[in-house]
From TrEMBL:
Keyword Transport included in the entry's annotation: yes
Keyword Transport belongs to the record: yes
Transmembrane intervals: none
Source superkingdom: Bacteria
Coiled-coil stretches noted in the UniProt entry, renumbered to this chain: none
Family statement: Belongs to the ABC transporter superfamily.
Name this polypeptide is given: ATP-binding cassette domain-containing protein
GO MF annotations, alphabetized: ATP binding; ATP hydrolysis activity
Listed InterPro entries: AAA+_ATPase, ABC_transporter-like_ATP-bd, ABC_transporter_ATP-binding, P-loop_NTPase
Length: 274
């Protein structure tokens, strides 16, 4: 289970020094950029939770703090009760992270890429080899396992990166925009795999994914957390969110919740309170 409590993150702005001031004179400093203002939610085991929000809403920043890749300015993340920032090693051992699938080593085969992560996770060579075979079968990697990843299609990269994230059989899984660049068949395969992983037969994993594609989140996720302007503005099933927004259609509900009229305090105006 993953609990996210009051996360906030600002990115420091670099010095602004126009070219005509490069050799002297005052420069300036841009205001810090707010990545996340206040994001809180709970993701349960055996369920797929989707972070849905428009571009720049703060989804990736939230996911990176959940993975322990960047430190929050405020708030905390608990992975199965262990705080990511305080007990990084223990918390991360219980977490698989699917980030950018372009980050594979091109000269290594898929098997070698995955085995490298297995070693980083402390798996011995025999256990790693066995687990790679299992994952190869579950994810349909087959003959790809022994091909160099250079030249892999987006879908092939995604499967390899997912196998890498699952190598230590973590009970929790984070996926940032997992269907980016996938065609309809690869998207369907990924959906089926994620549903399996969340089911009792697949280990009842706690899965959190981020996306700005509404239909994808609506189809796949049991629970949806809407993030807008760096805040969680609503959470619940598709039916709950439609009811909260007072809309029959999920796209309309999303637009109302994510882009609702902004009050003085920066919170969107909702037709009904959350
Ligand atoms: N490294 C960084 N330095 C400065 N600003 C950043 C940095 N990373 C993100 N931001 C800013 O933080 C805000 C949130 O960005 P983030 O990438 O988390 O949003 P997102 O919801 O994932 O967006 P998208 O759907 O477009 O990927 C944006 O305004 C972005 O410009």
């Amino acid at each position: 289970m993953i609990v996210v409590e009051g996360l906030a993150k600002r990115y420091a702005a670099g010095p602004r020094r126009p070219w005509w001031r490069r050799f002297g004179g005052p420069g300036g400093v841009d205001a810090p950029v707010v990545g996340v203002r206040e994001v809180s939610f709970r993701a349960e085991d055996g369920r797929i939770t989707g972070l849905l929000g428009p571009n720049g809403a703060g989804k990736t920043t939230t996911m990176r703090m959940m993975a322990g890749l960047i430190a929050p300015d405020a708030g905390r993340v608990l992975i199965d009760g262990r705080e990511v920032q305080a007990e990084a090693g223990v918390a991360r051992a219980r977490l698989g992270v699917l980030g950018d699938p372009r980050g594979l080593y091109p000269r290594l085969s898929a098997r070698e890429n995955i085995a490298y992560y297995a070693a980083l996770q402390g798996l011995g060579p025999v256990a790693a080899a066995q687990r790679i075979e299992e994952l190869g079968e579950t994810l349909g990697l087959g003959p790809l396992l022994d091909r160099r990843t250079e030249g892999f299609s987006q879908g092939e990269r995604m499967k390899t990166a997912l196998a890498r994230a699952l190598i230590h059989d973590p009970p929790n899984l984070l996926l940032d925009e997992p269907t980016n660049g996938l065609d309809v068949i690869a998207t369907r395969q990924l959906r089926a795999t994620l549903r399996h992983l969340a089911s009792p037969a697949g280990g009842g994993k706690c899965i959190v994914l981020s996306s700005h594609v509404m239909s994808e989140v609506a189809q796949l996720c049991d629970e949806i957390v809407i993030v807008a302007r760096g805040r969680t503005v609503a959470r619940g099933s598709v039916a709950t969110l439609c009811a909260v927004a007072g809309e029959a259609d999920f796209e309309e509900a999303f637009v109302r919740l994510a882009f609702g009229e902004v009050q003085q305090d920066g919170m969107p105006t909702l037709t009904r309170p959350l």
